[in-house]
Design a protein that fits this description.
Elements (H helix, E strand, L loop, with lengths): L15 H13 L7 E7 L2 E7 L8 E6 L2 E6 L20 E6 L4 E9 L2 E8 L16 H11 L1
Antiparallel strand pairs: 1-2, 2-7, 3-4, 4-5, 6-7
Length: about 150
């Protein structure tokens, strides 16, 4: 049986990559840790905020590759001098992915009060109209023009 996808519609040409991005983002949507918010801060800017209590700047890594924003957190085990009677806060590593549209760029990141803020902007493309010239010979049309001119 053939898999029917968004990009298989006959009027949507060249959207195969978009279809793959949707599939990839659906897989990462099931991750639950750490919790996060996404805000639209203006018409063309966004902020992703992740709750990363207990993580220091050096425990966090933010990368962008192939339109995918990845945030990783790894805490070192500092249990050598500690004796826990109860350990309910785990030193848990994570990675969270976000798929970015064309033109969306990371402008910066900050860590304050256990919240990691990542600011994004989207450059709006210029509207461009392109007129396509039709080329090639059409002998039947020219013959009619020549015969009607005589």
């Amino acid at each position: 049986m053939t898999k029917v996808t968004f990009a298989s519609h006959p009027y949507l040409l060249g959207f195969e990559q978009f279809d793959r991005l949707l599939e990839r983002s659906a897989k990462t949507a099931t991750e639950g840790y750490p919790p996060y918010n996404i805000e639209q801060t203006s018409e063309s800017s966004y902020r992703i905020t992740l709750a990363v209590a207990g993580f220091a700047e050096e425990d966090l890594e933010i990368t962008v590759e192939n339109h995918q924003l990845t945030i990783r957190g790894r805490q070192g085990e500092d249990t050598a001098n500690r004796v826990y009677l109860h350990r309910g806060i785990a030193a848990r590593q994570f990675h969270r992915n976000f798929v970015l549209a064309d033109g969306v760029e990371v402008r910066g990141a900050s860590l304050e009060n256990g919240l990691l803020h990542i600011d994004l902007t989207r450059e709006l493309p210029e509207t461009r109209v392109q007129t396509i010239r039709i080329s090639g010979r059409q002998p039947s049309v020219r013959k009619r023009e020549e015969s009607s001119a005589s």
